[in-house]
Amino acid sequence: MLKRERCKDTPINYEIVNRELLASGINNIGKASIREIKRLIDNIEKATGDKFIRMEMGIPGLHAVEYGINAEIEALKNGVAAIYPDIDGIDILKSEISRFVKLFLDIDVNKAGCIPTVGSLQGSFASFMTVNRLYPDRDTILLINPGFPVHAQQIKILGQKYTAFDVYEYRGNKLRAKLEKYFEQGNIHSLLYSNPNNPAWICFTHDELKIIGELASKYGVIVMEDLAYIGMDFRKDYSKPGIPPFQPTIGKYTDKYILLISSSKAFSYAGQRIGMLVISDELFNYNNDNLLKYYSSNNFGNCMLFGTLYSLSGGTAHSAQYGLAAILKSVNDGIYNYRNEVIEYGRKAAIMKKIFSDNGFKIVYDKDIDIPIADGFYFTISYPGFTGEELLEEFLFYGISAISLSITGSDRNEGLRACVSLVDRKQFPDLEKRLKKFHNNYPICY
Fold it and tell me: Whole-prediction pTM value?
């Protein structure tokens, strides 16, 4: 892919990397999925014996919360592994989810609409399936990008339509006109965004969420808010139950919304694949006869539970529900402050961004409207003279992995997304050494 002559004096064996890249069958690594890149890096590490700076996957790098582990063990000992859980979740978890969104987002949602899912990705998949059946004259989801690539993949797999735009140039008051242009077409039934944003780590303000909410209400659009990184804009402390400031959310500004909340990041409970699907009371109780074409009921909540989710999994792992319930109870009761643990991601990001910038790299999404972007789970990088796809391939020879921004719906084709979670602080000297080598090999790009 690289059009300039590649330097062969690289930290990772040049011939082995070339061989593994060819064997992978990936024609364009810049368009490869996150999991494809992971497999390729695994193979290169195995073949060379060299450890990469792994920044391609958003996998938590902290220990799981003990409250969850202990509760799950106890639940297993009590025999829940032999019993099917109810589709809508165990009552204690539903109650704690409802408490959580009240205490940390300052919104009221009946526990009926607080549903455990097999990771928040099952929640988004189920939401896409169900919302798409509401309006016969609307067939399109609007994605506010950049975003998590798998959401677009899910929509494609479902055979649904989506349209999208990169929000970076439409922050603040500019967002209103941009959204209204899409909504006026009359074909948008829902929209999705992440906050904090994966991959750019931009964070919508209350004013921006108000704009989204007002327009969604005006045009009858359902808002899906991906809160995978809830509370992880570390510029403010959102971790005190019932005490402002609260995590900004669309739930304050419109009635029909869906929240997708992950246990993987804030609670480091990724391996148990349990997330939270929170449906507003207005939407959960919404009746629409068009649903009868696909379900046995015209009620949105019933269709989601006993139509869509039942078809997808028949329920979320029983013991994991008890684990998440215990985590949420400890957080809701003020016993465990999750921020004290996950703020390590922000601290690592600040150090890593400086290492990159000291070696000629730029931060692609560098501002949150008019202030510097927060230090968090992700940041974005570029190097003068390289496209993101070129840079990603070149990084293979320097023992560094990431993903291209081009697969996130970003307009910034020069950039990569870097995740800090799996990079150990002990690897910082290696990262600095490898980036210095890269910078020395390509001074023409500086």
Answer: 0.94
